Amino acid sequence: MKALAILGSTGSIGTSTLDIxxxxxEQLRVVALAAGANLDRLEAQVRRYRPAVVAVTREVSARExxxxxxxxxxxxxxxxAGLERAAAESGADMVVSAIVGAAGLxxxxxxxxxxxDVALANKESLVMAGELVTREARRRGxxxxxxxxxxxxxxxxxxxxxxxxxxxxxxxxxxxxFRTRPRSTFASITPEEALKHPTWSMGKxxxxxxxxxxxKGLEVIEAHWLFGLPxxxxxxxxxxxxxxxxxxxxxxxxxxAQLGVPDMRVPIQYALTYPERCENAVPRLALDxxxxxxxxxxxxxxxxxxDLAYQATRQGGSAPAVLNAANxxxxxxxxxxxxxxxxxxxxxxxxxxxxxxxxxxxxQDVLDVxxxxxxxLERH
Length: 380
Known about the structure:
By secondary structure, the chain is α/β, with parallel strands linked by helices. It folds into 2 domains: 2-146, Rossmann fold (3-Layer(aba) Sandwich); 151-315, no CATH class.
């Protein structure tokens, strides 16, 4: 039986992971849960799954959760140290890294350093510190198993084939809610409109990233590190139906695709049970009912965030960490009503131009860059 630590257990990936645990009780068990502010949901999860370790963001939340749980035996801890304890010291065989944003970097790295396999949903870990994380994973013999549907699709289509046989990776994108909306109207887009994704149900941050296509830019960077290919061999194509989750084109012209219903439980389960495939309750794709599968190029003028991600990756060093921090600030400010939807890309561009680049030799370097970008944006 595989023991799991689930970081971000109250979010969409975390709750879907627990659905899979419920469906495979003889194969999976929970030994650690970590979450942010949703104490009601976390309390219910702790009572149901009885993990040995529970981690929350703040000490006040830990004390409140401990009060609610009473004499239940779970150890409740908090802050970055608590997250790292849940990841590295809870007895887990695998860590599901599903904390949103830069906050997921330290516990993900802690899991890798502890020799734990990682089911990776926190793409920011590889965006910010891809070279450091993947190098440590190789050194420790740790598997980084993708949870994002696109990277899981590529992983499955590669089937163990080396990068030398690959011409390019094709990440599919639904195009988000504004695929057909005129660029001239983007300044008037509201957070409510941007949070209405046409095919996926996700948290707020990733939903806004999907609307700007920055999510696809972050996935390009993640694919670069996961599969060892230069970004010149990672392409993005719009596929509105979200049935084909990504494709691999080989040097002989063959293209392999992975298809399925748009349900995150499929790639999550594959990561948890790899290399096995298990039955589940996810609806099956009825090909005879699919009206059509269409593709179109990305309108890069309408969605400049994608090219900013390519730019940052080519620059290397601290540039992807700058991109990530600026994007998180931009999304937060947009959701708070302080900037317009079209200004998110402007803010990121400003940070990439204004914050000097430098090499990253440690995780502390990465964290320093993340902090400096946020402080720089406050002043500018």
